[in-house]
Structure formats: structure tokens, C-alpha cells
Amino acid sequence: MPVKVPQKVYSGIEAVRKSGKTNMLDRNAVQVLCSDMGYYEAVTWLEDNQREYASGIFVGFEVQEDK
């Protein structure tokens, strides 16, 4: 089951992935690239949700539905 994340977080992670500038397992580099690209919500989420990010690398990410 994919890890559910807010839209802005998903957008940041996807932007870094599509850029091909780092190995997605390198969370610190992903954070730096998210920051460089202006995805500040993703930077904060990555810092606060390290286990969820690691899990999402293997099972995928999905935008969480607004309630």
C-alpha cells in the first residue's frame, strides 16, 4: 500500500525523482534538492517522516485525499 502524502510533498518528491539528480535513497540529498526547487513543505515532511519516506521508496507514494 503506497504511503499517503500531501500534494505539495508528492510534487516535491516527484520533481526530484524526475530530475535524476540523486539516488532517491539519499534522503538528505532529496531534501536539499527539494529546497533548491522550492518544495519547502516536502523538506519539512521528509525531516519529520523519515520512516514513512523510507517505506514509500519501496512501496510508492500517493496523494492523500482531502477530507
Shape: globular
The termini sit apart by: 19 Å
Radius of gyration: 11 Å
Structural class: mainly alpha
Biggest sheet architecture? 2 strands, parallel
Descriptive report:
It is built from four helices and two strands. The protein has one domain. The model has no long low-confidence stretch (mean pLDDT 96). Strands 1-2 form a two-stranded parallel sheet. The two termini are 19 Å apart. By secondary structure, the chain is mainly alpha-helical.
Summarize the entry for a quick read.
The protein is mostly helical. The chain has helices at residues 7-19, 27-36, 40-48, 50-59, and strands at residues 3-5, 61-63. The chain has one domain (3-58).
Question: Could you outline the blueprint of secondary structure elements for this entry?
Answer:
Elements: E1 3-5, H1 7-19, H2 27-36, H3 40-48, H4 50-59, E2 61-63
Parallel strand pairs: 1-2
Helix pairs in contact: 1-3, 2-3
